[in-house]
């Protein structure tokens, strides 16, 4: 009975994911098909739709990349000694142009860290990029995103806090579900990918949020 229940849950998850994938990819494909048909019938208008078509293709590519990340086996992890402060600084520099467009302040708090931390740089990089990008998307013009790191004898703690609109308890409870998102063009897959990567690194992730008071995401990774 337990085995049947587990298989039933797996089938339910696969069905839910499949329906979500079909829905998310069908929308941009429909738009691409429509604009290509318009361009074929009206060659003089073709150039007007190229940017929209490219945006929709990029959206499909992003969805596929997220699923490839979800399927990446944990066994492929390659641990290295990294400098957490240097890694966070790199990610913030990478996302600074995106933040500047919305006049968002990127702030970094870091306790003095003498030791390096053993982890896989690519996965930790992806965690930080996903969390900071989500925070930038969440805040309004002139908002603030604050990243902090702390290292103890047993773990590394990363925290990303924004002063955006925050989430209701109902929305907070759905964080990480396939295709749940509060973004207009989001898929919800970024949160799933982030949780998967944190789990691959044997870490934990938690979300705290209050409507009107912003959101804080905390990732704890063991040393």
Q: Can you tell me the residue ranges where pLDDT is under 50 for at least 5 consecutive residues?
A: none
How large is the radius of gyration? 20 Å
- Gap between N and C termini: 39 Å
How would a textbook summarize the main sheet? 5 strands, mixed
- The outline comes out as globular
> How would you write the strand order of the largest sheet?
2-4-5-7-6
Average pLDDT taken over every residue: 81
| Order of secondary-structure elements | HHEHEEHEEHHEE
What is the helix fraction of residues, given as a range? 40-55%
Please count the helical segments.
6
DSSP strand content = 15-25%
- Specify the structural class: alpha+beta
Q: How many strand segments?
A: 7
Give an overview of the whole structure:
- The chain has 223 residues and is of the alpha+beta class.
- It has 6 helices and 7 strands; from the N terminus they run ααβαββαββααββ.
- The protein has helices at residues 2-41, 50-71, 84-101, 121-138, 169-173, 189-200, and strands at 80-82, 105-110, 117-119, 144-151, 155-162, 204-209, 215-222.
- α2 packs parallel to α6 (189-200), α3 (84-101) runs parallel beside α4 and α4 (121-138) runs antiparallel to α6.
- It starts with a helix and ends with a strand.
- The relative contact order is 0.12.
What's the structural blueprint in terms of helices and strands?
Layout: H1 2-41, H2 50-71, E1 80-82, H3 84-101, E2 105-110, E3 117-119, H4 121-138, E4 144-151, E5 155-162, H5 169-173, H6 189-200, E6 204-209, E7 215-222
Helix pairs in contact: 1-2, 2-6, 3-4, 4-6
Give me some keywords for this one.
alpha+beta, 223 residues, 52% helix, two-stranded antiparallel sheet, five-stranded mixed beta sheet
